[in-house]
Amino acid sequence: MREYLDFEKPLRELEERISRLRKSNSQKQSVLDQIEKQTVRLNELEIELFGNLTPWQHSQIARHPQRPSISNYLESMTQEFLELHGDRLFGDDHAIIGGFALLKERPVMVIGQEKGKTLKERMRRNFGMPNPEGYRKALRLMKMAEKFQRPIITFIDTPGAYPGIDAEQHGQAEAIARNLMTMARLHVPIIAIITGEGGSGGALALGVADRVFILEHSIYSVISPEGCAAILWDDASKAAQAASALKLTAPELLKLGIVDQVIPEPLGGAHRDVETTAQQLLHTIDSTLQQLDKLSPTTLLHERDEKFRKMAAIREIQ
To answer: How far is it, in rounded angstroms, from Cα 11 to Cα 65?
Structure first.
C-alpha cells in the first residue's frame, strides 16, 4: 500500500476519487469522461508538484518509509551476493550490509547502510544508524576488496552515525576518522551513491570515493534540518527553513562540486518505480567503472586526493 507524504495530499485525494469511479464499474459515458478528466488532472498535478519541490520536501522524499534501500538495489542490480559479517573486534552491526557480488558479471564489493522497512526490521537495523563496529566492518571489507582488487560500491542512506553513549565509548569518532583516512588511500576504484539521507560523518564514512553520485531526491548534509534548526533557532520546527539554508539537495550539491552527478528518479521518487531506478544506477555504475578501469592506481589516488581538496577551496572576492 502506497504511503503519502503531507505535501502529496492533493494527489491522494485525486487518486482516491479516480479509484472510486473505476470501482463503480459504470459504463456511462459521463463516468468514463470523468475518469479521463481526473486522470489528466492527476498527471498535470504530479508534474507541477514534483517539478517545484522545496528543499524540505526533497528531504521528506529522501526519508520516505518506502524508499528503496541497499537490499532492494542488491536484489535488482547484482547476482550471487555473499554477505560478510562482523568487524573481528566486537560484533556484527546490522545497520551496515556488505559483501562480494557480481555486477554485470564484474566482481565488486558492495557496502551500505540499511534502515529496514517494518518496525521490527528498523529496530534490528537501528534505523540505519551504525555503531563503531559497523564502520569497522565496512573498513574490513574495503581492505579485503583492495586485497583481491575488487572495485568498491557504497550505498549511503543514514540519518547519521548512532550518537549513543555506548557508541562513543566504543570509539565512534575514531572509527569514522579511520574510514576516511583509509578510503582516501585505497588502490581500487570507489563509487559512492547517496540513495536517501546522507547525514553527517555517518554518511561521509562511506563517502570518500573517486565518484560520488546522488539520486535526484536524496540529501547530503553535515547535519539534519531539525538539528540545524534546534542549534540556530532553538526550535526544531523550523526545519524547513534550515533545509533551505543547508544547500542539501542534489542540484545544489552538484553546483557546489560536492557530488559528481545527479541520477534522475521516476516522477514522484524512487519508491514509485524501484526497478527503473535500479537499472539507471546499474548503467551509471557500469559506465563509470569502465572509465576508472583505465586509470593507474597512482592516477586514481592523485585524482581522488585532488577531488576532495577542491571541495575545501576558499576564494576571495575582490
So the answer is: 18
